[in-house]
Write a structure and sequence with these properties.
Layout lengths: L10 E6 L2 E6 L16 H4 L3 H12 L4 H11 L7 H11 L3
Antiparallel strand pairs: 1-2
């Protein structure tokens, strides 16, 4: 993970179609943006639909790795990790 040092910038987050874009209005960053967002908390979080699917599959005693496989198969751009699956199951106390 990269650190921001003396990063004075205003960032605007907006969506364009299916993609999410970040625009730096002013300032200079001391790092490059990540090319692949796996492991980043914002990009890896589950949508409401994915969370409902996870809960239904967990109640049916489906293994976490199979749940992750199903979620990733439904959305090729999904960067959710096993840790997110385990945390969501623990939060809802399922499985």
């Amino acid at each position: 993970m990269e650190r921001l040092v003396d990063c004075f910038a205003v960032m605007i987050l907006f969506s364009v179609g299916d993609e999410c874009k970040v625009e730096v209005v002013c300032g200079v960053h001391n790092h490059h943006s990540a090319e692949y967002l796996e492991g980043h908390s914002y990009a890896g979080r589950l949508s409401k639909e994915e969370n409902n699917l996870l809960m239904d599959m967990s109640k049916s005693l489906v293994r976490p790795k199979d749940i992750l496989y199903t979620i990733k198969r439904r959305d090729g751009k999904n960067v959710t990790t096993m840790k997110t699956i385990y945390n969501a199951r623990h939060k809802s106390r399922v499985g």
